[in-house]
TrEMBL record:
This is CDP-alcohol phosphatidyltransferase. InterPro entries: Alkaline_phosphatase_core_sf. GO terms for molecular function: transferase activity. Keywords: Membrane, Transferase, Transmembrane, Transmembrane helix. The chain crosses the membrane at residues 36-55, 93-115. The lineage of its organism: Bacteria, Bacillati, Actinomycetota, Actinomycetes, Kitasatosporales. The keyword Transcription regulation does not apply.
């Protein structure tokens, strides 16, 4: 059985598996009791590997990578929460029960079938032995001559290959854990004195805003881009009229299709965090995050606006945030929009009311996560009068009349259309907030955390995301002239592309920070 949906075709099942031939030979040589035990264990293992192939299909489809047997079990809980928000609690419970029963059935029934096959082989030992020998000869011949059917080799050792790949991946994961923990202890700016961090942004309100699933496909895919690029052009002009100007480029994200926290942490830590173990390692370290650099100076109040956070969030300490406003602390009384707990426009208005609009003794640094463009992209909020936002109750009829997740979740074309609309909504919410509430001292940095899933971005899509810096003070953008970014909110196709992990050091350097390395 293949481990990608693209290869789930009849021709994949016409191959002659080496494992079956070897297995038959082994079973034929064993007495009854060992034969039954070996057959049961082999069958159960084959059933488990089939379940693992199904997991691989899901991870390839949604996250653009294979399932990691060391790290990815805990993400299944997030997947269940996503389904609950998208399809409802009852449907999710039924699906969860169905999946559990499917796995149990696979393991049990394949084990029973293998035991039965072993007994049949033993009952007809002489013809079975001849058959195994003939099959082995055919397999060797097909391998030697490279014989294929419809481009697929007849001789196969797929199951052994899957085991080998997962074993190597597990070993690489364990080795990477040790090596990365060592790398995380080294930091170019780890020992920089507070007064030498970000001196060129003193007095500025600096906002780092992540837009969920805002990727290169939103700007360049012909099925998605027209609406998004039109929104970016309109927003660029509107901001210019309000006195704001922007420069934009590309970052290559450490994640794809999901696991947004890996993109956030890679951007702000300056380390390449592409799996959950690396994330845990960094969160437990004292490696300087970009946001914590502002806190370290003592010259900024630091806050986080996290409408997607609905439980304890110990990462607050690593990011150096004095206060975090989660989904329950922004005063929202309206409906959820699938996974997103509240529309971006409301979250930004709540940020204005509770934080940005209040008098302070210090300038502000904020990390803001916008969630309205999170899959499944249905229903999508609509822009309303900012003065009428209230507690968000006015979104009830908008949510009720919107597209249902079940109507688009398996439809690639509709998913692309709704994804584009969601990005336009998030960008519009953010830029209108800046027009409305931004000041001469506001500096906005906004970017995507990753590309959308392959059903939307397409197979073999890049992992690039747009990033923009917006400010009224021309000195802020003058500091990054040598970055060669594109003027405006839309980066040119050939604008510079950097690894997301390089942004922290480039930003700190551009705004006057002096490197004082901390070494392992």
């Amino acid at each position: 059985m293949p481990n990608t949906l693209g290869n789930l075709r009849a021709r994949e099942f016409t191959r002659l598996p080496a494992e079956a031939i070897v297995g038959a030979a082994v079973l034929l040589s064993l007495p009854r009791r060992p034969r039954v035990i070996v057959a049961a264990i082999s069958g159960a293992t084959l059933g488990a590997l089939t379940a693992l192939n199904i997991l691989d299909m899901g991870y390839n489809e949604f996250l653009g990578r294979h399932f990691n047997i060391i790290l990815d079990w805990e993400l299944l809980d997030d997947a269940q929460s996503y389904l609950k928000d998208s399809l409802g609690g009852t449907t999710t419970v039924l699906l969860t029960i169905g999946v559990i029963l499917l796995v149990i059935a696979l393991i049990t029934l394949v084990a029973l079938a293998t035991v039965r096959t072993a007994n049949v082989l033993a009952r007809y030992k002489t013809p079975a032995s001849k058959g195994a020998l003939m099959a082995g000869t055919v397999w060797i011949t097909c391998t030697a001559f490279g014989l294929q059917v419809a481009g697929v080799p007849i001789a196969a050792d797929h199951t052994a290959g899957v085991i080998k790949v997962h074993a190597h991946r597990a070993m690489d994961t364990l080795r990477d854990e040790a090596a990365f923990a060592k790398d995380a202890k080294s930091d170019t700016f780890g020992n920089t004195p507070p007064d030498q961090l970000l001196p060129d942004l003193r007095g500025k309100d600096v906002l780092f805003t992540f837009i969920e699933s805002y990727g290169r496909s939103a700007l360049q895919d012909p099925q998605i881009a027209p609406g998004v690029t039109s929104t970016l052009d309109t927003s660029t002009k509107a901001l210019a009229e309000a006195g704001f100007h922007a420069k934009s480029g590309w970052l290559t994200s450490a994640t794809y299709g999901g696991s947004s926290w890996l993109g956030h942490s890679t951007t702000l830590s300056g380390l390449w965090i592409d799996n959950q173990q690396r994330y845990r390692t960094v969160m437990a370290s004292d490696h300087l995050s970009l946001t914590k650099a502002f806190q370290k100076t003592g010259d900024w109040d630091t806050v986080g606006v996290m409408p997607g956070v609905q439980k304890g969030w110990p990462e607050q300490q690593y990011y150096g945030l004095d206060k975090v406003y989660n989904a329950f602390q922004l005063g929202y009384k309206g409906p959820k929009f699938s996974w997103s707990t509240m529309p971006d426009q409301y979250a930004l208005e709540a940020f204005q009311r509770q934080v940005h609009g209040r008098k302070r003794d210090k300038p502000l640094m904020a990390e803001i996560i916008l969630t309205s463009s999170h899959q499944p992209w249905a229903p999508i909020p609509k822009m309303v009068d900012w003065e009428a936002l209230g507690d968000g109750s006015l979104f009830k009829p908008i949510q009720k009349s919107g597209t249902k997740p079940a109507d688009i979740i398996s439809d690639s074309t509709r998913s692309q259309q709704e994804y584009g609309k969601s990005i336009s909504y998030s960008v519009t919410s953010l830029t209108q907030w800046l027009e409305r509430y931004g000041t001469d001292d506001t500096v906005l940095v906004f970017l995507g955390d990753h590309q959308p899933i392959s059903r939307v971005s397409g197979t073999n899509a890049s992992r690039d995301v747009p990033i923009s810096i917006v400010a009224k003070d021309p000195k802020v953008l003058d500091k990054i002239t040598d970055w060669n970014w594109t003027d405006g909110l839309q980066p040119a196709a050939k604008a510079p592309v950097w690894k997301m992990s390089s942004f922290r050091d480039r930003f700190l350097t551009a705004y006057g920070s002096t490197p004082h390395a901390k070494k392992d």
